[in-house]
Each structure stands twice: as structure tokens, then as C-alpha cells.
From TrEMBL:
The keyword Metal-binding applies. Keywords: Hydrolase, Metal-binding. One of its GO terms (biological process) is putrescine biosynthetic process from arginine, via agmatine. This is SPEB protein. GO terms for molecular function: agmatinase activity; metal ion binding. It comes from the Eukaryota. The keyword Metal-binding applies. Belongs to the arginase family. InterPro entries: Ureohydrolase, Ureohydrolase_dom_sf.
Amino acid sequence: GGDHTITYPILQAVAGKHGPVGLVHVDAHTDTSDRALGEKIYHGTPFRRCVEEGLLDCSRVVQIGIRGSSYDPDPYKYCQDQVSSAAGMRRVMLSFPAALEIIRGCKGLNIVGCDLVEVAPMYDVSGNTALLAANLLFEMLCVLPGVKTT
């Protein structure tokens, strides 16, 4: 649950063990603003902080589904200034997948961490969102290196 501020400490831990990693980030926003509402750590800033701390290998960052509003007048400039390309076989962090196809398409990547954010069970009276989240996390576990799914 939560937003991508939770990914920031996860990436600190992952990079602490593996060094800078690639990132497959599925979201409507880049989360690379310098500040949001005057704060440097806010749900719109975590991936910028990760770049600044050297947690991400910017040549292997892929962002999918980017759209929507932003606090920045030019929300894509920071990302365009970084070097982005395919993730390759080096270590990758997978964050907030939006569809089974995206998760299953990551099979074969050297994924060393993953998370799922933006789940709010208190607004999920039917439990359907929590069930979907559990299924998506299960799918993420299935694409980790060395996991046999057949």
C-alpha cells in the first residue's frame, strides 16, 4: 500500500546490496519532481531522490503509462535529461505493475526487488482491490530469477 515514497527506502536497501539497479516503473506520473508542496521527500519526488543518491542505473530505467498532471511546469525534462534504454540482464527493480502482461513480460530479467503501491484497503469495501494486489504480488514472485512456474 501507500505511494512511491515506500519505493525510495526499498531501493536504498536493494542498491545497498546490489549497487545501482535498473527500474521498470509503471505509473501515471514520473515521480521525479524536485519538490512537491515544498517537500523534497513526497510522493512526487522519490525517483529523483533515487537518481541523486545513485540508487538507479539511469541507462536502464523504463517508465510505462506516464500521463496526467504534475507540480512541475515541464514534468518530463528531468527524465529526458537522464539516459534511458532497455533494462538488459543486469539487476532490475520492478515497481507498481498495472497489468499481468507487464509483469509476465519481465520474466527473464534479473529482478532483485519489487513492490506494489497505491492499494488502500480502507476504501476497498469489497476486498477486490486487495485480492488483485495479492495476485499481482504473487505474479511478481513468479517472475523472480530461478522461480520455476511449470
